[in-house]
Amino acid sequence: MTANFDTAWTFTYDGGVDSRNDPIFDVFKQAIILPSGDLICVGSTDDSSGIANVLIEKLSQKGKLLLKKQFSFRGNCKGASIIQSINGEFFVGGVRFGSPLLLRLDSQLNLKSNYWYYDSIADRSKLLQGATLQSLVQTTDGRIIAVGGDAFPYGSGSTLNNYAVWMEFDSLGAPINRVREWSDSPGFEIAGWSLLETASGGFLMGGNQATGIITNVGDRAGLFKYSFSLKGVGTEMNQVSRVRKLRNGKLIVVGQAYEEDCWTKYQRLSYDAWWSFISEAGSNDSWNTAGLSGSDDALFDATQLTDNRIAFLGLKGTVPDSGLWVFVTDSTAKTIQWEKQFDLPAIAGGVTRNNLDPYTIAATPDSGFIVVGKENTTKQGENAFAIKFVPKPMPVSNLPSRENMKQIHPFNSGSLSFEIWRTGKVVFREYDLHGRLIQVQEKAVGKPGTVSFRLTGSTGKNQLMLWELTAPNEHLIGDLP
Fold first, then answer.
1. Residue (of 282, 162, 145) closest to 222 by Cα position
2. What phi and psi values does residue 396 have, to the nearest 5 degrees?
3. pLDDT tier at 5, thresholds 50, 70, 90
4. Residue 81 and residue 248: Cα distance in Å, rounded?
5. CB 264 within 8 A of CB 236
6. From CA 32, how far away is CA 93, in angstroms rounded?
7. Which of 59, 124, 207, 286 falls between 20 and 30 A from 11, CA-CA?
8. Across-strand partners of 356?
9. How far apart, in whole angstroms, are the C-alpha atoms of residue 380 and residue 377?
10. ∠ Cα 129 135 141 (to 5°)
11. Which residue(s) pair with 222 in the sheet?
12. In this structure, are residues 214 and 166 in contact, taking their beta carbons and an 8 Å threshold?
């Protein structure tokens, strides 16, 4: 592995018990990162009477609770998605009594308005099926677009409706009379789990087993599914979790694909985690998989880090369960540079906290990322969690050999380059084989990126040079001929 990440902090929210002493169920479905590095998490909790409420919590960049908001309406209501608008307000998508709910909040998370797509007079839903607003986008012209359907599921085998809804609001959250529904599309299995605006001004929606191409006014222009021929079985469809857009405009889809040799090797079906770059029309331009052979693995989300690498979130089918699965690739999404599974720290009594359902991932300004989801427990109900990951220096014992060093830190024209993850002073020292200091160089790094140091003329002459790099939260050592 040529990268290394670790947890900087973990945060859990436990709502306790209600008035009947029943456990309260808490979950974070999505988080957005503010420019300061603080984050806002949205999900749901229960009130004292056991009725579900929208839960919104603001955490500091160090994982401390700064602000908590709980919104309740008649009947159960839950939050599932959040965006910050151009003017600094927040929009939260969710569900109330089975029908779409949109909240508009000010910069301090105070409720300014709410819209419930429900016929209160006739006391019935306006939609063909129940729907939660799972993804929100503010368009370049200021509109708020929401898509939804079934709540985002976990793993394979869930019973899902073949259904998605598209809704449009103005910049203040007031509805525009354009609502689109797609139910039981022949030959496709769709869901409104994610949405992005394309460069051409339309939209791409992803979920279940398909991506949908949608025009600027919400008309469906086409559907695309991802199939391949599975040895010994025939044609099978991939599961689509989400579609995401990178900063360079490239689009990527994540989900599940059957292992290509699962039937011939194990005589059973098992999923790999799958991700591909796709076009605006939905067609895949690449095909990548990872996971454990013979088990069900899945990807649920992806985000591009500030250094252009891509971080992926999912679950790996290890036995026993080893927590959520994260891995980081290079900017091409081809090469996995680091991967690991994580649990929450143990609580009093040594109770293992490895029953985690991660939902979404978001990049942070310090080249790290945040993962949010829920912790499933047996006695305490479900607890919401957020975990912060940051880049860490490679352990000395894991430093690459001299043969590989040039590939990671190019040694060209008498210089040595490093990727620095935090701002501050960087010190580079050279020593001879006897440990005598040859020279010291210092540089101030104002933003994460590559920093290079010129080497002395003694290198490259069959002499061994030792070097040491110290930077904020980093310490590396190595040698070069």
1. 282
2. -55, -40
3. very high
4. 24
5. no
6. 13
7. 207
8. 375
9. 6
10. 115
11. 213
12. yes
